[in-house]
Design brief:
heterodimer; A: about 300 residues; mainly alpha; B: Rossmann fold; 3 domains; globular; ABC-type dipeptide/oligopeptide/nickel transport system permease subunit (chain A); BP-dependent_transpt_permease (chain A)
């Protein structure tokens, strides 16, 4: 029951929706959303095929050519070890996107599952899930993550795992509220009356109607996760040293900001641009889905 | 119409209302003409999607974002469209006031009602009067709308009933002595007895304050009971206008004629209700020519071409927008006098009992044990095989709770409830629940939320068929049969609920309930959210199903006219207690309990119609 599956299923059901209407909506895309989509597409392309866009090997060290400013050979200059900054920013897209993607996917799947159970079944299960979620919510996520990851030795997967635990309550609350809102609607009661099983009501009747909220949680989780993971790698936790990662590059190059400002600024811009784009795009998709649901 | 009359409070000419959508502008209403003389009460009657609300909003300059209007609007001697927005805003409230439909959302929930009534109060120098003076004024105005208790001024909206809130809203609307009061479905959300009080209040205030009343409603009988003249709108066009009595006795437009016939009579049961086939076209999908032509039994090829037919005056003050007025005039005269028939309840008296409810109580606990409410207080009810039983009462009477107990969605706190041999109070086994579902199914009130918006009608029905134990290979055929049974084409299986009209959705929901071949169908206000013309179709369908499938019905409604058409026996509920029960005809014709009498007296136009039945 992964999120993309549910989405694909819903889109397929939409198949017979009038073509002219969806075309009209597609042309109605605001400029900010179009720009965001382009920026995200570029980041995804970098992550899939860094070799296509990176002018050099991002790991190639040139001790003599360190800390150059922007030039024809190095569009964004080089860092202290003489590595090409542009190539490293391009190569960094992979860890920048993959981490948050795994993080938010796991968060959304877990919280959707728990939200359906807690919201629909209610009772003691809901009470336990909600209180545990509230408790986790009350803890300072990043600080606790730094402590745990620091104590157990800075593993990337560990960081992801801990952050999944900390990010789940946010999505869980949104989705649980959405389940509760729909739990007593006539179409759910009608399903109960004709004898649909509880599991089937949750998966086949409630889940598809949570789509806009799930998409929102996905994008929110993605942007949150990206900031959190960048912050961790900025502190030297998570990704191994030497790997091209935007947070780590920011940390490594900030001391030489006077010699080649681009070395620190470029990864920073990359983080902000990606997060902003994901947020704008997510908001727009949510509104579109909601509008579609409202149209009768 | 006649332009020689100079004394008009409000005159609207050639009003077009447009909404800008993703595919360009869509016409909401076209060529609207309205005249309101000082002190006169007019009604704008139309079904959903007629554009009646937005047309009047255009006059008040209260159109929502993305909707605009063109045309000539005159208020007295002034041209409203030439006024600056600021000047029009000043006019609103002082000269033209509005009362809205929903008494639950139109008052500010965090402000005391007294303060809301005198919000705009200023003295001659434009200053706010003292607190004491403001309160005194609020109390005086509440008394004017029939709220004698001065303490009400200090209450918050949530502490008041729906009817009280509507009174408060009216007090606030007439606070500055407007010349024209626009009331947009002011009683639709209220119970019948409250509705009658509010309508009487509006009529009285109109006389005492010498203001004109523009009543927007979907209910012709409400319009007739309050207004001097009626405008009938359909799909964005004004189709007919006439004095109330004239329109009621001599409708010239097929649509008005159809609406009058579709309204179920409260004083007799008719063989078959005359629904208008089809449903109201939505803006953007309206046909050329006469918008009613596709549903009109008299439509000629010419009706479907060109533009809107002209509004022709056939009698003084009676205008009709129909190309064939003269040709069909005699035919429209027929069909109005439908003889009453008697329900054949006697034949079912000896049949087995399906539902037995004895001394059922249901209490809902409040938060932490406080403020619990008793929804049902010792109710007895029985339904026999093939019988149609009505459950009548106002909001809060417990009728829906009782229905939900019968279906198994709710458990009684106390008492005995047995459906098809299954005891519903206390522990039930899986087999019990399955047996219950094979015996009783339910159709819900709101057709817009009773079908899952994410699934096609076919998917919903296939699921129901599967749960009924149908063979997988036979599913498609079974779904087709169910759709046919409720009068929907088989292709509708591929559609999602959003592509269906309200009536079609209700049919699909009924089809789902029939999938398990229940012995009893519980109908919870199934027609109250539907337009009159569609309501008749659904009522006819239910009567057919009862006869053809030998299905018992438990029909919950607040509408006595509807109960008359569908049920053999009726239970009248009030605050969780059955106050009267018996054969429907005898309960309605000779009510024994005071509450039943009050309900019957509250039917709009119920009594006034008696004297004027057409010969």
């Amino acid at each position: 029951m992964s999120v993309p599956d549910a989405k694909a299923a819903v889109t397929a059901r939409d198949g017979r929706r009038s073509r002219s209407r969806s075309r009209a909506r597609r042309t109605g895309m605001p400029v900010s959303v179009a720009l965001s989509a382009v920026a995200l597409a570029a980041a995804i392309l970098c992550a899939i095929a860094p070799g296509l866009l990176a002018p050099q090997d991002p790991a190639l060290i040139d001790p003599a050519g360190g800390l150059q400013t922007a030039s024809g050979a190095h569009l964004l200059g080089t860092d202290a070890l003489g590595r090409d900054v542009l190539s490293r920013v391009v190569a960094g897209a992979r860890s920048a996107l993959v981490g948050p993607l795994i993080l938010t996917s796991a968060t959304v799947v877990i919280s959707t599952f728990l939200a359906l159970l807690a919201g629909y079944l209610g009772g003691w299960f809901d009470a336990v899930v909600s209180r545990v979620a509230d408790t986790i919510y009350a803890l300072p996520a990043l600080i606790v993550t730094i402590v745990i990851v620091g104590v157990f030795g800075g593993g990337w997967w560990l960081a992801i795992g801990v952050l999944v635990v900390f990010n789940t309550p946010t999505a869980l609350r949104i989705l649980r509220a959405a389940v509760i809102e729909r739990r007593d609607l006539p179409y759910v009661e009608a399903a109960r009356t004709i004898g649909v099983s509880r599991w089937s009501i949750m998966v086949r009747h409630l889940l598809p109607n949570l789509e806009p909220m799930i998409v929102t949680c996905f994008f929110l989780g993605f942007t949150y996760g990206m900031v959190e993971l960048s912050a961790l790698s900025f502190l030297g936790l998570g990704v191994p040293p030497g790997s091209p990662d935007w947070g780590r590059m920011l940390a490594e190059n900030r001391v030489q900001v006077a010699q080649n400002p681009w070395a620190a600024v470029a990864p920073g811009i990359a983080i902000v641009a990606t997060v902003l784009s994901a947020n704008i795009l997510g908001g727009w998709i949510y509104e579109r889905l909601e509008r579609r649901k409202r149209e009768r | 119409m006649s332009d020689h009359e100079t004394t008009r409070a409000l005159a609207v000419r050639d009003l077009d209302v447009w909404a800008s959508g993703p595919r360009g502008d869509v016409a909401i209403a076209t060529g609207i003409e309205l005249d309101v003389r000082p002190g006169e009460a007019i009604a704008i009657v139309g079904e959903s999607g007629s554009g009646k609300s937005l047309s009047t909003r255009a006059v008040l300059d209260l159109l929502p974002e993305g909707v605009r209007a063109t045309g000539s609007l005159r208020y007295g001697e002034r041209d409203l469209s030439a006024l600056a927005p600021r000047a029009r805003r000043r006019l609103r409230g002082r000269e033209l006031a509005l009362v809205m439909q929903d008494p639950f959302t139109m008052l500010n929930p965090v402000e005391r009602v007294g303060a809301q009534i005198v919000e705009a109060l200023r003295d001659e120098r434009g200053r706010r009067p003292s607190r004491a003076a403001r309160r005194a004024e609020a109390v005086r105005r509440l008394a004017e709308v029939g709220i004698a208790d001065p303490a009400v001024a200090d209450r918050y909206p949530f502490e008041l009933s729906g009817g009280m809130r509507q009174r408060v809203a009216i007090a606030a609307a007439i606070a500055e002595g407007p010349r024209v009061l626009v009331a947009d479905e002011p009683t639709t959300a209220l119970d019948v007895t409250t509705q009658r009080q509010i309508l009487e209040l509006l009529g009285e205030l109109r006389r005492t304050h010498e203001m004109a009343l523009v009543l927007i409603t979907h209910d012709l009988s409400v319009a007739f009971s309050v207004c001097d003249r009626v405008y009938v709108m359909y799909a964005g066009a004004l189709l007919e206008t006439a004095p109330s009595r004239e329109l009621r006795d001599r409708p010239r437009h097929p649509y008005t004629h159809g609406l009058l016939l579709a309204e179920p009579p409260a004083d007799r049961r008719v063989e078959r209700l005359a629904g208008i086939p089809g449903s109201v076209p939505s803006p953007g999908t309206r046909p050329d020519g006469c918008p009613f032509a596709p549903r009109c039994p008299w439509a000629a090829p010419a009706c479907r071409e060109g533009t809107l037919p002209p509004l022709r005056e056939t009698a003084p003050g009676h205008g009709t927008r129909c190309l064939r007025i003269d040709e069909i005039a005699t035919e429209l005269g027929h069909g109005g006098d439908r003889p009453g028939v008697t329900a054949d309840a006697a034949s079912r008296a000896s049949r087995a009992t399906l539902v037995t409810v004895e001394g059922v109580r249901k209490t809902f606990a409040g938060r932490r044990g406080h403020g619990g409410t008793t929804a049902l207080d010792g109710v007895d009810l029985s339904v026999r095989e093939g019988e149609s039983v009505g459950l009548v009462g106002e909001s809060g009477s417990g009728k829906t709770t009782l229905a939900r107990i019968v279906v198994g969605l709710e458990e009684a706190t106390d008492g005995r409830a047995e459906v098809g041999g299954v005891a519903l109070v206390g522990r039930t086994t899986r087999a019990d629940r399955e047996a219950l579902r094979d015996t009783v199914q339910m159709a819900f009130q709101d057709p817009y939320s009773s079908l899952n918006p994410a699934r096609t009608v076919g998917a919903t029905l296939r699921e129901a068929v599967r749960l009924a134990g149908g063979e997988r290979a036979d599913e498609e055929r079974a779904v087709g049969e169910l759709l046919e049974r409720v009068g929907l084409p088989a292709q509708y299986a591929q559609r999602r609920p959003s592509a269906l009209s309200g009536g079609e959705r209700q049919r699909a929901a009924i089809a789902r309930a029939l999938a398990r071949r229940p012995r009893l169908l519980v109908c919870d206000e199934v027609v109250s959210a539907l337009d009159v013309s569609v309501q008749a179709q659904i009522l006819n369908l239910l009567r057919d199903l009862q006869r053809e499938l030998d299905l018992a019905l438990l029909f919950i409604t607040h509408d006595l006219a509807v109960v008359r058409q569908v049920t053999d026996r009726v239970y009248v509920l009030r605050r969780g207690v059955v106050v009267e029960t018996g054969a429907t005809a005898s309960v309605l014709d000779a009510p024994a309990h005071a509450y039943t009498r009050e309900l019957i007296a509250s039917i709009p136009g119920g009594r006034s119609l008696e004297g004027s039945t057409r010969a």
